[in-house]
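Notebook B, p. 112. Complex prediction, attempt 2.
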Amino acid sequence: MIYYVITFANTHSAIMTQSHLETYANICIMPTLREISAGCGISIHFLPDEYHNVMTGLNTHGLDAKMYTLYKISEDDGKISPTPLS
Amino acid sequence: MTIDVRGKNCPIPVIMANKEIENNNLSFTVLVDNAIAVENLKKLAKNKGYRIEFNGSASDYSVNFINDKNNIPENNPDNSQAGSTIKTSLILNDWVLFIGKDVLGEGDPILGDSLIKMYFYTLSQGNDLPKAILFMNGGVKLPTSNIQVIDHLKVLNNRGCEIFVCGACLDFYGLTDQLQVGSISNMYAITEEINKASKFVTL
């Protein structure tokens, strides 16, 4: 299974971005994967079909690119492999 | 025997029907005036091993409870097959989750909204699922209005979790017609779920 997550430098950025992206794409928020960070963080989850809609939303959001990281996640038989894309 | 509870609010119809069941009345009819009461009576019948025949529409329903003695309640300890099923269920997920508000924790409501979404995402992806999720008071806003939580609840529902939503609470908030997942329930059935579970978790 392939999906994408966006992690954020802080909680406020995550919540603001989630509200913004909801109008562009079918996304949901999830806890930041333990494979990415041991801290308690908020991430945005979306499926490959929504990739372009999410990118469009991110481009109109104006959030500094340093404030978030996009990951492609491969999940196979319970094994989670994140690949950073930005 | 006919019990006329038209005009009586939830949970009176269920309480009156349950009294007949406790009196070992194997066949009786309940007259009610709303579809929610019919749904609640159906649930009661299922739990108690009765079958239902009903007719009517709009504001006048006749619900017949029939126990032909072939329908043994699932929690009847004399039924070994049902007993073993329940036992397995108890080991796997004999806990219920109670949600009394539409955010997680006290403090900032925006953060609380994000946390409750993440909670249900995490729960829906895990393997330790509750037997039932009960929504009351402000909690009923989640299965009616919170799109992300509704999606997670649908996953949980498809994986076997029963979702009960307080009918009086939906009515209070004017959300009865907006329920997206789960079934409308009442204090009587919700209390039974709480009492039956070995673990009760409230957020």
